[in-house]
Design brief:
Two copies of one chain form a homodimer. With about 350 residues, chain A is α/β, with parallel strands linked by helices. Chain A has three domains: about 45 residues, 434 Repressor (Amino-terminal Domain) (Orthogonal Bundle); about 130 residues, Response regulator (Rossmann fold, 3-Layer(aba) Sandwich), CATH 3.40.50.2300; about 130 residues, Rossmann fold. Helices cover about 45% and strands about 15% of the residues of chain A. Chain A is built from twelve helices and twelve strands. In chain A, the strands form two sheets. The first copy, chain A, has a six-stranded parallel sheet, sandwiched between helices. In chain A, strands 7-6-8-9-10-12 form a six-stranded mixed sheet, with helices on both faces. In chain A, α6 packs parallel to α7. Chain A is elongated. Chain A starts with 16 loop residues before the first helix and ends in a 12-residue tail after the last strand. Chains A and B meet through α4, α5, β2, α6 and α7 of A and α4, α5, β2, α6 and α7 of B. Chain B binds a DNA duplex (30 and 30 nucleotides) through α2 and α4.
Chain lengths: ~350, ~350
DNA sequence: CGTCGATCTGGGATCGTTGCCACAGGCTTG
DNA sequence: CAAGCCTGTGGCAACGATCCCAGATCGACG
């Protein structure tokens, strides 16, 4: 359709509004009005401006515009780790929705470091982001951003339920359900592999697990709960330690996809048969879980939908800064696969 | 350390340079000098300014600064699909390097749509990005950006070798190597599953495949080459079609990770044993390939390193816009696993 | 003692936009 | 025909930073 190069290949300075005005023989005011479509401008003049803009390959300077209008069309996004498919999907959902609504996404992965997260938040303040979506590590970042008048949506985890919008899933209920699933198969000794219990996610997942056990009249054995760093090799090592003991659980619940991978690799390394020797369930579904034999029973949360919802909520908040904070809770479902069976190898 | 909230929780306007100047009783000029550390400013004055800035929670307005200095500290990144681990890792590498060098990353996933890609490029021009890293779909986007004086690095694929920096791997050589690997095992009928042959990647991968066959004195059978859309279900369907034929190849080469997944699922659906009934190799390594039984022999390219190199190259280019365009070629290695064996089930 | 340089400070133009305001015609209306 | 309205246009002051330049103060040096 339009020649994107703007027949401008040999010019060395980027075209500015002034250039367009000069080329069309009109004032900057009129030119601006013609291009933005706001305010009176004669049809003939409008055409001349449009033609000149096209001919010069003019693209309005978004920063100058933001500065003048005091509104920005870009949002900051702060996730833990793009290499984890959960966060990548989350970012994909946010980015798609942002583009659809005419926003630019500035993305930072903080590697789970509080320090990085804070400095990224400062960078967002620096660019005067219209809002920020964050998977927070503590209350610090949301608090800081709110103190700077920047709308914030907490996603996946939330630390400021009374002050901040959030999009999460009902971690406790779904963790309880999947634990009940194991209990109903006859398991009485169920291990939990978890990375942290301080964020709302870990806390809720553990609560779901313990409540399910308690409701079944079982005592929670702290020795069956392993806290591992949230990376595959650390998880694997921690699990090998535990499973190598004489008396071991008949089922294990991994609280996220990385831990599940560590768990799975540990079980393999120890030569344990799944599900005969050990049943396995995972919070978070991942590609490989439907490909290994047997497949892993998992909790599937739609991270893309989570991201889309977060972006929608952020834009609502930008549109109405004084509305009361809302917490959106999305559904997650259990995908039963072959990794769970009755204990004792009764296949 | 420093109170990030800046004891400013109750103020409603964001602090500006003028506010800091007022608070410290100095002019904006001096305040600016004190904060940026450029030019003369008395030590006592500097301290007063810093204290006032801290106290107000002042964060410099990056856009105003960019506008005035006519340089931007943010880069645009344009990839195909964040849900594909290859692109997610690429973005992770770029983002990490960008942050380390003090740049902000604006990220867009174009879903492989040319149209989306062009409009994203225009958005980058609008924000006056300091540079752009792109996995291009055609020459159009790099060309457009260059015509707008914006430094561009093409990554993974490259369409403007003579005008544009690029970071790639040697697709042809490594594709040839892995085909030779299959030939050396005794395979004489090797299928190729590929998504496109127009981009440089597909073209080179196919060239590697055909050259390996030709060098072995084999004729290239067009019937063994399937072009499928680059998504799992389409690839699966295309493969099922082919493998269901009476005479089928003894080995298959999938040209990327999505195609490999489709291939793998198709083989499973048809009840084919790997590698006895069919050997499988993949361009791109993925998590699941080391977890399924047997593991998939794959070409591992370090997407994170690719991204880091691209960012480094972009910054070099920004620093020296007139240097001749360079093409960086990174190594990729073959990871042998259990999915490849001699044909005919001689395990 | 006058001049020079070094140190320190503030005024004001500027980056590319937008939007308020004034103004100039032409038209309708009482 | 004066008063009012609608249309179309341009001038100019912002937005928040930087940075050039002029001026001021002070010590040193010829």
């Amino acid at each position: 359709m339009s020649d994107l190069a703007g027949r401008n290949g040999n010019r060395n300075r980027r075209a500015t509004l002034k250039d367009v005005a000069l080329a069309s023989g009109l004032s900057q005011s009129t030119t601006s009005r013609a291009l933005s479509g706001e305010g009176y401008v004669a049809e003939a003049a409008r055409q001349r401006v449009l033609a000149a803009a096209e001919q010069l390959g003019y693209v309005p300077h978004a920063m100058a515009r933001s500065l003048r209008k005091q509104v920005s069309r870009s949002v900051g996004v702060l996730v833990s780790d793009l290499r984890n498919p959960f966060y990548a999907d989350l970012a994909a959902g946010i980015g798609a929705q942002a583009r659809a609504r005419g926003y630019t996404m500035m993305l930072v992965a903080d590697q789970g470091l509080e320090e990085e997260q804070l400095s990224a938040a400062q960078a967002f303040v620096g660019t005067r982001a219209a809002g920020v979506i964050v998977t927070p590590l503590s209350a610090a970042v949301p608090q800081y951003l709110l103190s700077q008048q920047i709308p914030v949506v907490e996603v996946d985890r939330h630390f400021l339920p009374q002050a901040c919008d959030s999009v999460t899933i009902d971690n406790e209920t779904v963790a309880r359900r999947i634990t009940e699933h194991l209990l109903s198969l006859g398991h009485r000794s169920i291990g939990l592999l978890i990375d942290e219990t301080a964020w709302t996610t870990g806390e809720a997942r553990m609560a779901g697990y313990t409540h399910a056990l308690e409701d079944a009249g079982l005592e929670v054995d702290r020795g069956l709960i392993i806290a591992a760093g949230s990376d595959v090799t650390a998880a694997r090592a921690a699990v090998v330690d535990m499973l190598a003991r004489r008396v071991r659980p008949t089922a294990m619940f991994a609280a996220n996809n990385l831990l599940a991978e560590g768990l799975w690799r540990a079980a393999h390394a120890l030569g344990l048969r799944i599900p005969e020797d050990l049943s396995i369930v995972s919070f978070d579904d991942a590609e490989w879980m439907s490909m290994v034999e047997p497949g892993i029973t998992a909790i599937a949360q739609d991270a893309v939908a989570l991201g889309e919802a977060a972006m929608d909520q952020l834009l609502d908040r930008i549109a109405d800064p004084d509305a009361p904070p809302a917490g959106i809770v999305l559904e997650a479902r259990i995908v039963p696969r072959g990794s769970t069976a009755a204990p004792g190898g009764s296949h």
